[in-house]
Amino acid sequence: MIFNKKGEIDFLNLLIQGAENTLKGAHMFREAMMGDKPPATYFEALKEIENIGDSFTHEIFKGLNKVFITPLDREDIMELAVRLDDVLDGIEASIARFDYLNITFTNQYMKEFSEVLVSSCEHLLAAFKLLSKKKYMQIQEHTVQINSLENEGDRLMREGIREIFTHPTDPYHDFKLKELYERLEQTTDCCEDVADILESVVLRYA
User: Coiled-coil annotation: which residues (predicted)?
Assistant: First the structure.
């Protein structure tokens, strides 16, 4: 358990560490999309990062069961932890599709999705650091950017699927791509979900 100087459980620091781990996962996913190795070779390493993310979530939930006074509403802390975990789950689920769907290549859509995810996670980490410092109004600069990046994820999914149907190839191949694009877009949605909770916190605490 992580404690602050007063001996209390440092929930905000745990959220920061969770966000750092999520960003680490996003960087690894981008490496998988940009590198020369088959993307599925990154699956086990990303699974380990996802397991570490789960441990931060469990630590937060254990702490909430032990204390009465928290830096934010308990529900806010729980929601932030769960939704942040969803982001890393989405990244892990995306790389898993390269494994069990046997996708052995990457394309420009996948690479651009990986950039969107890295940028989104960078903004999430910055927002959590500001949250720990109670710099609530500055958080909105990052949530606005995350919302914009989610729109970019929507665009990539639409264009990727349009490409599938305007230039169809093998049906199994096309199914794999559509499945992957949709999961990646859902992961950008998860980033926006965290941003939405952060915005609601700002409205109540600023």
Answer: none
Give Cβ neighbours of residue 175 (< 8 Å, ≥ 6 apart): none
Domain count across the chain: 1
- Tens digit of pLDDT for each residue in 48-85? 999 999 999 999 999 999 888 899 999 999 999 999 99
Whether this prediction's pTM lies above 0.90 is answered by yes
Helix axes 171-205, 136-166, angle to 10 degrees: 160
Which token pair is 70? 């928290």
Q: Is residue 59 part of a domain?
A: yes
What Cα–Cα distance (Å) separates residue 130 from each residue in 3, 18, 56, 201?
19, 15, 19, 12
Ramachandran bin of 51, using left for φ above 0, alpha for ψ from -120 to 50, beta for the remaining angles: alpha
CATH label of the domain that carries residue 85: 1.20.58.220
Residue 6: phi, psi to the nearest 5?
-90, 5
